[in-house]
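Q: Convert this sequence to structure tokens.
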Amino acid sequence: MKTAPSKVTCGCNRSSMLTFVVCIMCFTSAFYWNYLTRISRRNSLIRGNEKLYNKTSTHGSLTSSPRSCKPVTKFVFIKPEKTGGSTVSSMLLRFAMENKLVAALKKVNKEDYYIRLDRKNHRLGILYYNCSNFPGYDYLCLHIDMYDRLSLERIIPNAKYFTIVRSPYTHLKSRFYYDRKDMNLTMSPDPFALFLRDIIEDVKVDKSLLQGSNSFSVRFGLDIYANKTSSLAALQRLNDELDLVMLLEYFDESLVLLKKTMCWNFEDIIYHPCKVHTEYQPPMTNQMRDIITKVSRADIRLYNIFNKTFWKRVANYDGDFEADLAKFRSVQKAAKVRCQKNEDQEFCHKLQSDVCGLNKIVYEEQMKWLC
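A:
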């Protein structure tokens, strides 16, 4: 009698197929589960790295990635008038308070607007703490009467030096209105234009008046009467001495360069504009620019050299400058929104305080914990 091998074969095939399908399903499930696990781990790792890269501070700002350099805590900011210097100084004072740095402050009983320096008495005008364990000064960010590198190095050795300038054309105009030199010219529809016409005539009689229209050069100890060759040589030496010269016209870009120079975080350079005047001022004409070109020749040379160096630094920036600039502006905007919502009163109070208020806080704090 014949058997029915076909049925047996068919049963085996079905069993084999079922086993095969089950194996495929198990393999697929295992592969898919492994894939999901890897994705989950990768996302967790990314989130962890983002937290490390974008560490949230107490006031919600973003810091930079882990630094391979050491943050600079010894610095001198040469603060000219009407260049955004008060905004920069306020930012520096906040950074210093966060890091417990010792400020070189003006003597309380000194009525001078500037800290006056000289090589014989290099602490003249600076508050001195007469105690055996005084650690020394870490930074200076107030007005000084004249840049004297030797005196400054005695006060704060091994420091970074930086300053900020602006176009002499807008600078002279800003100083004019800030000093209210137009008080005697109120009958004129354009008091600054009348002032320039007067000064160009007065300079013909008394060339010492050029000092007022070349205040950058005077502040840095440059000879404003030197010929072009000597002037450019002195400017180049000054340019080599300074670690960074910022430009008011490119304020955010300047702070990104400062952050890189000082190895700081984005949150360290958040700022609040100080002493910004929005009163109407008649526009500058070509004739007015021609006069300023004649009377501010030394400052124009200074600005041109610093401007050229500034853009070289941007071009040679170590990293993606545009990306860092965009990130900083995002951090700056976030801080502004946070303060508008009043989400961090202590931070916002310090951020919106002016230089005088912050200097008072620094003075009181230093008197408590120094010596």
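The radius of gyration is 32 Å.
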